[in-house]
Specification:
This protein has 3 domains: about 45-240, Orthogonal Bundle (Helix Hairpins), CATH 1.10.287; about 275-310 and about 320-355, no CATH class; about 365-490, Glucose Permease (Domain IIA), CATH 2.70.70. Helix content is about 65%, strand content about 15%. The protein has 7 helices and 14 strands.
């Protein structure tokens, strides 16, 4: 358990070092109109570095091995040369000792021959002396003569003995020299045998060294070939690295250009977004000002079942809004929700705005004869609530709707006379009363340019005029407010 706890921090530190030394990089390569990205992961960079390190280590190791083998071969060649020189010196010394031995042997034979000659002379003298002794017995006179002769012979014999002694000593010396020479010859033979053995060993060493030299030369050739191959690999790797560095620099430069363009684009997006948001907010404020001027609260308008207000039946696949704005700058992306809310509210108010009766039903010159609200009834003079607006113009002036819609009533009404009622959706209706003639029928769709009828004085009316009502959610509102709010509509458009 403890080993695992130790290994994990070590592995984490190693991975952290690898990520620090070899951070993940991306090379963006553009060829013409094609842009492709090459990812250099930490593992890939570490593998390339490890391969380069192994190649470098192998190259250094091979160079050191080649240098060491060359030094070893040179050292062996020096030893071989010194052994050869020592061998030649030993051969010369053996030849010199052999010549000296032959000379001593020759002198020894000469002294031996001379010694044998002296021994023979000594025997002859002894025989002569014995013969003289025999003769002395015969003659006293001759004894003296022979005594003198004997004395002379004795002296001669003594000289011969001295000479023999000297010869013996010289012989002993010669024997000693011969013994020494034999010993030296034996030693020389041993040395010769050792020299022969040494020479054989040297020859074997030479053969072995020559084999090692050949093997080392072959290995050196292989190492040189391997080094050439590895050098080619290193050169290729360096070429690839230089290309990668050049591509990286180019990619960095292009990335800087792209970042500058993106920054400029982001600034443009911010400016465009600010303008769009400003315009949207201004438009929304002006639309709301129209509703405020008309005295209508959009939240209280009842939507139709057909969903033309944008809040009814809806559907379709779900496409996340974040996918649509992910290409925008981060500074802009965070404000899209607010803009979307404003646009959504503006989109919801636009159809309602289009349904507001903002157009004046009488396009010719007209006069307001009776405003909306409190008034005295023109027939009985009593206080009453006037739920509309009385507009006076020339007889049979064309009457047009205040907004697009559908005719829900076109006929006679006891109070209104000839009446046309138009539904504009969102629980907004308008009424056009006291007409002289009705030009539409029930269920007919009309727009702002359609003629509903002609101005008259039918029904409960004291003269030629148009009684114009605006009813929102069943409650009558002042049509003059809608007519005044029309000025804001032009600003909105």
């Amino acid at each position: 358990m403890r080993d695992n706890t130790i290994r994990h921090p070590v592995g984490q530190r190693l991975r952290a070092k690898l990520h620090q030394w070899f951070p993940a990089r991306q090379l963006v390569i553009r060829e013409g109109s094609t842009v492709r990205a090459v990812n250099l992961s930490t593992r890939f960079q570490a593998s390339i570095a490890a391969i380069a390190f192994i190649v470098l280590t192998w190259t250094v190791t091979g160079t050191i091995g080649y240098t060491y083998q060359t030094y070893k071969i040179d050292k062996k060649n020096g030893e071989i040369e010194r052994t050869r020189i020592a061998y030649h010196e030993l051969i010369e010394e053996v030849s010199s000792q052999h010549s000296k031995f032959m000379s001593i042997t020759k002198d020894l034979n000469y002294y031996r021959t001379y010694l044998l000659t002296l021994i023979e002379q000594n025997e002859g003298l002894r025989n002569d002396l014995a013969s003289i002794h025999d003769r002395l017995e015969d003659s006293e006179t001759e004894r003296e003569r022979y005594a003198n002769a004997e004395e002379a012979l004795r002296k001669q014999l003594h000289g011969i003995e001295n000479e023999l002694t000297n010869l013996s000593e010289r012989n002993d010396l010669l024997q000693t020299d011969v013994t020494v020479m034999r010993t030296r010859i034996v030693s020389t033979d041993d040395e010769r045998r050792r020299a022969v053995a040494a020479r054989a060993s040297i020859d074997r060493n030479i053969a072995r060294l020559e084999g090692e030299l050949s093997s080392a030369q072959n290995r050196a050739a292989e190492l040189e070939k391997f080094l050439v191959q590895k050098q080619q690999v290193v050169d290729q790797a360096q070429t690839v690295r230089r290309q990668a560095v050049a591509e990286r620099d180019s990619a960095v430069e292009k990335a800087a250009q792209v970042e500058a363009k993106m920054a400029a684009l982001a600034q443009q997006q911010q400016q465009a977004f600010a303008k769009l948001q400003e315009r949207t907010q201004g438009t929304l404020q002006r639309v709301e000002a129209v509703f405020t001027a008309a005295g209508v609260d959009p939240k209280r308008l009842s939507p139709l079942i057909n969903g033309r207000d944008g809040k009814g039946a809806r559907g379709g696949p779900f496409v996340p809004w974040s996918d649509q704005v992910k290409e925008l700058a981060p500074e802009v992306r965070g404000k899209t929700d607010q803009l979307g809310t404003s646009i959504e509210r503006l989109d919801a108010l636009r159809p309602v705005l289009n349904s507001l009766p903002l157009s004046v039903p009488v396009r010719n010159d007209y006069a307001v004869m009776s405003a909306f609200g409190y008034r005295k009834d023109p027939f009985n003079g009593r206080a009453a609530l006037h739920e509309g607006l009385d507009l006076q113009a020339t007889f049979r002036t064309p009457i047009r709707p205040g907004a697009p819609g559908r005719v829900v009533f076109a006929g006679w009404h006891p109070q209104y006379g000839r009446l046309v009622e138009v539904d504009h959706d969102y629980s907004i209706r308008t009424r056009y009363a006291h007409l002289d003639e009705i030009s539409v029928t029930d269920g007919q769709d009309v727009d702002r340019g359609s003629v509903l009828g002609l101005m008259g004085r039918s029904g409960r009316a004291s003269g030629v005029h148009l009684h114009y009502e605006v009813v929102v959610s069943g409650r009558p509102l002042d049509p003059a407010n809608f007519m005044r709010a029309a000025s804001y509509v032009f600003k909105v458009k």
